[in-house]
Write a structure and sequence with these properties.
Helix content: 25-40%
Length: about 675
């Protein structure tokens, strides 16, 4: 049966439907607004599956929560629980819920309130991370720094994993949801009252017990029951220790003495060695001077060894007290660290707390009878142990060395370093020159094995005599020539210009045999000084020098070989012709001026010619066999005769002066003769 509905009824039904739709939309919008304002809502469990829990929150669809978010507390069907709306719709159009996030937000609100009220909370340490530990605070993970675990430093962090402890929130970050907590603050507050009580009772020299809290390189921190005191390493033992860990360990209970207390800074200085008597008391009775003691080498320096006789008592063995005879550069040559050393007590200074010890005093001093064993002039054998710039050390017996100075190695050679004649390990004969027991030194000599040859050398190498030798070295200061008798000759050139020195050094070569004239003998420098001008003399000049040096008497007549004399005269005539050629050339250029000049010169020279004519007449009476001997030749003979007389009479004059003087006279005579001839022609 079809019921007819009027238009009015239809309109009325439409109005009712619109009202219902508006009401439903309003209810739906209210639900969405609620989720936007607070994502935590209450819901009831409608089904518990193997993996998920289905929860109805009064939304158009149910939501699912992973079962593992509930942990051990699995909900029952119909149970009301608080959940967190993670997503209104996922990709499948389903509602996504979270029980874990709801619990986190609930716990976060509780923690915020605890932080605001400065309350203590309980948590469980679940794992270790860099810098500290992670603590579970009822679903919220917090960071516990390692320095905030306890009042004392922690060495074993793993021992705290799984422990439930009380904590205090020291920092809370709302935006990042981070929390930093501390257990140390709780313990410090608990010890605060006890600390104040202890600080009010602490006094200097008070003896207390404490627990070793921390060990550093410079000392130990001791917990005295709420107050930390420092036990410095220097106050731990009267003896020498390298590190505090040698005496104590962390958590050890030790007895200490209060040696200082700063009430303002609340710092307590502790001492351990102060509980025992000072070891330097009655030290002289325990270690009398001259007694033999034993100890351990605790330190080795470049100047000696510190020996620990007992805790807090050390003696020094100076490097000079290690051996009577050995030249020790460092104590480590004889002893090592921690060696047990036996020594004799030499002196004690109780005020300065110093004890001097000696090792060599345990053996007899070999220098006490040294003068009986070695006397001056004695010839002995030894072994070269060391070579230095100034000499060689020769071991005469074990531990007894003598010095051969470089000046006592040779009479004739100028030795610059002993290695030129000696080697390490070489056995040599030496002569005792001096024994000094005060300075413990013995002077030795090698050249004294032979007679001083300088008397013979001075006799052989007289000034003016000729000497043969081989060129050894060519130096800036001169040329060294090896002569006979192992004597060095010196051709000095130190005062010459560079140019002249270069010309002279070009005249010789190393290894060349030369024959030179002796200037003088220098015994101090062990040198025979030779003439440097002999280096550049020609053969004829050298022959003349030989003849001159061979004359034994100044009055003995010098006979120069005729071939040498003719050669010398030929050279002089060639020199004589040079001015005449120049004069002829000048006449060609200016005849009138030349004639005028010649007349003037001739007029001036006439008196000199007359004087010069008188001298050849005197010479002609003694030399009738030479009818046409020129005036230049006669002058030359006179000059040579005079020079020979000077050389023979004065042994110190050099051959260079003799030759140069003769040459100068010859040139002057040749010029005079030329002028005389011109003057005669004019007349």
């Amino acid at each position: 049966m079809i019921k007819h509905v009027t238009r009015e009824q239809v309109e009325e039904i439409s109005e009712v439907k619109e009202e219902i739709d508006e009401e439903l939309e309003t209810l739906y919008n209210r639900t969405l607004k609620k989720f936007n304002d607070d994502k935590r809502v209450m819901g009831h469990v409608i089904r518990v599956g193997e993996k998920d829990v289905v929860v109805d929150i009064g939304f158009k669809s149910e939501g699912m929560i992973p079962l593992d978010e509930f942990g051990d507390k699995i909900p029952e069907v119909g149970e009301q629980i608080e959940i967190y709306v993670d997503k209104i719709e996922d990709q499948h159009g389903q509602l996504v819920l979270s029980k874990k996030k709801a619990d986190f937000l609930k716990s976060w609100e509780v923690l915020k309130q605890k932080y605001a009220d400065n309350d203590i909370i309980e948590g469980k340490i679940i794992k270790r991370i860099k810098g500290g530990m992670v603590v579970d605070l009822n679903g919220v993970e917090a960071f516990l720094p390692g320095s905030q675990i306890d009042v004392r430093p922690i060495t074993d962090f793993d021992a705290y994993i799984g422990k439930t402890m009380d904590f205090k929130i020291v920092k809370l970050n709302e935006a990042r949801k981070n929390i930093v907590i501390s257990h140390k603050e709780i313990k410090e507050e608990a010890l605060k009252e006890k600390r104040e009580e202890l600080l009010s009772q602490i006094q200097v020299d008070q003896v207390l017990k404490g627990r070793v809290k921390n060990i550093t390189d410079f000392g130990v921190f001791v917990d005295l029951g709420g107050v930390d005191g420092l036990l410095h390493i220097t106050d731990m033992s009267w003896g020498r220790i390298n590190h505090p860990s040698e005496m104590v360990k962390v958590d050890d209970i030790i007895t200490v003495k209060v040696i200082d207390y700063d009430t303002e800074k609340q710092r307590v200085s502790l001492g351990l060695k102060q509980l025992t008597p000072h070891p330097w008391e009655e030290i002289e009775q325990r270690y009398p001077i001259g007694s033999v003691v034993k100890g351990r080498a605790v330190s080795i320096t470049n100047y000696g060894i510190f020996v620990e006789l007992e805790k807090g008592v050390e003696g020094l063995i100076h490097i000079s007290e290690l051996s009577w005879t050995q030249h020790i550069k460092h104590p480590s040559e004889l002893f090592n660290l921690n060696d047990e050393i036996e020594a004799k007590v030499l002196s004690i200074d109780s005020e300065e707390r110093k004890i001097s010890l000696g090792v060599k005093q345990l053996q007899p001093d070999p220098w006490e009878s040294i003068e009986q064993r070695y006397t001056e002039g004695m010839q002995v054998k030894g072994v070269v142990r060391n070579l230095t710039q100034f000499g060689a050390f020769v071991e005469l017996e074990e531990g007894i060395d003598g010095l051969v100075h470089v000046s006592d190695l040779s009479w004739t050679r100028k030795i610059r370093h002993p290695k030129e004649v000696l080697q390490k390990g070489q056995e040599v004969d030496v002569v005792i020159l001096e024994v000094n027991t005060d300075s413990r030194k013995i002077s030795l000599g090698i050249k004294q094995l032979e007679t001083n040859p300088w008397d013979v050398i001075e006799e052989k190498y007289k000034p003016g005599s000729m000497a043969k030798g081989e060129v050894l070295k060519i130096l800036e200061k001169g040329v060294i020539v090896q002569l006979e008798e192992n004597v060095e000759g010196l051709i000095p050139m130190g005062d010459m210009s560079k140019k002249d020195r270069k010309n002279y050094t070009k005249a010789v070569k190393v290894g060349e045999e030369v024959e030179l004239r002796v200037e003088k003998v220098d015994r101090d420098e062990r040198k025979v000084i030779l003439s440097r001008d002999d280096l550049i003399m020609n053969e004829e000049e050298k022959e003349i020098a030989k003849v001159i040096s061979s004359q034994e008497n100044a009055t003995q007549k010098i006979e120069i070989p005729e071939d040498i004399l003719n050669k010398l005269q030929t050279d002089e005539k060639s020199e004589e012709e040079k001015p005449a050629k120049k004069e002829a050339e000048s006449k060609k250029k200016s005849p009138k001026s030349a004639d005028k000049k010649t007349e003037e010169e001739s007029a001036e020279e006439v008196p000199e010619v007359e004087e010069a004519d008188e001298e050849p007449d005197a010479e002609a009476e003694g030399k009738a066999d030479k009818k046409k001997t020129s005036k230049a030749d006669k002058k030359e003979e006179e000059a040579l005769a005079e020079e020979t007389s000077e050389v023979s009479g004065e042994a110190e004059d050099s051959k260079e002066e003799a030759v140069e003087t003769g040459a100068e006279d010859t040139e002057e005579t040749a010029e005079e003769e030329a002028d005389e001839d011109n003057a005669g022609k004019k007349a």
